[in-house]
Amino acid sequence: MNESQNTIPHLFRCPISLDLLEDPVTLCTGQTYDRSNIEKWLAAGNLTCPVTMQKLHDPSIVPNHTLRHLIHQWLQMDPQFDPPTQTTTIDSLAFLRDTLASYETTSEIKLQALEKISVLSDEYCSFKKSCFLQLDFLPLLLELVFGREETQACKTNHMNFIELALCCILKLLPLGNLEPLNMIKEESKLATFVLLFEKGSSSVKTSLCHLIDSASSSSQTQELCYILGHCHKLVHEIVQVVSQNCEASEDAIKVISALCSLQSNKESLVRGGAVEGVITCISSGSEGRNLATLGMRTLEKLVEVESGKEALVNHPNGVETLVNMVFRVSDQDCSESAVEVLIIVCGDFGCAREEAIEAGVLTRLLLLLQSQCSNTTKSKARMLLKLLRSKQTGEPKQG
């Protein structure tokens, strides 16, 4: 920065971006921010003042005409001053990074720094993205979440920091380089990851699910995907979330599906109870969440291994749940997946065929054939009918 940029009066800087205020507005707490920055903060659902952390009894913002006039006068007095540049942005982010990295910084100050980073990371301009990459924010945040001793204790007063740090990590992941995620392969960090999944809030569990999903989708983190899929305690915790039919259940099912991207993970997931967990979740009949199609597609992947078929057939409600999903007027994708899974298990298990027929699958298949479903779904329905009828009459199974 040139000398004039170094001398911007403290009161003329936005506390969030640390840049010169362009449109100063004041909250009920008396703190002033640039309008664009504080509006993003409030739009993200924050109900506190970023500087004082006081709750806002009145979220309205008031233009600070006096301060705007003073800034205008100051700019006229210093014609050499240039508006904040890329250099000031780098310096602002570097300051925030140093604040987070310092062991001497208090938890409260670190939390405030994270809140500012969260707001800045929402501004997806190419330059800001390069700044975050250049300053290695992702490795630092991952280290803060999974590498610090205080995190491993899962202290209640530290959970807000964890939630916000994970939120920032997820915002930075789309920048492209997922290599830093591989630090989770370290034994201590993996243990913290599992502990957070076990003890964390619903928000933390959801964020961790998104992290696993990202790791499962990149060749850079294929080994990490394998390690996560074979971590029995983590798989158990994921299945627990699925079975509880809670807010994070849908994300947990997505994680099971994502981990299935590696064939070698499927056996581990089945051993961990993934099939039983998915069936329990989709058979609960919960309203307001589209879990049926997601669950059926996940079961399609799990029954590709023999143990997955056996787990489904041995589940007390497994085949019946599939039959109930065969004819869903408002969800043709779910119907197609259910028919596909039934073709697989009924082709190999006589008990599955008998149970499906007893549960009324023939009627549902006939209704499905008379519906407006796709030709692919109808073709699969005919295949299943042919399979069931051939087995009933003792004729050899035909393709």
TrEMBL record:
One of the GO biological process terms: protein ubiquitination
Lineage: superkingdom: Eukaryota
Domain spans labelled U-box: 7-81
Enzyme class label: transferase
EC number: 2.3.2.27
InterPro entries in the cross-refs: ARM-like, ARM-type_fold, ARM_PUB, PUB22/23/24-like, RING-Ubox_PUB, Ubox_domain, Znf_RING/FYVE/PHD
Keywords for the protein's UniProt record, in alphabetical order: Transferase, Ubl conjugation pathway
Protein name: U-box domain-containing protein
Source species of the chain: Clitoria ternatea (Butterfly pea)
Any Pfam family matching the protein: ARM_PUB
Function: Functions as an E3 ubiquitin ligase.
UniProt pathway annotation: Protein modification; protein ubiquitination
GO function terms (MF aspect): ubiquitin protein ligase activity
Swiss-Prot/TrEMBL catalytic activity: S-ubiquitinyl-[E2 ubiquitin-conjugating enzyme]-L-cysteine + [acceptor protein]-L-lysine = [E2 ubiquitin-conjugating enzyme]-L-cysteine + N(6)-ubiquitinyl-[acceptor protein]-L-lysine
UniProt keyword Transferase present: yes
Residues annotated as signal peptide: none
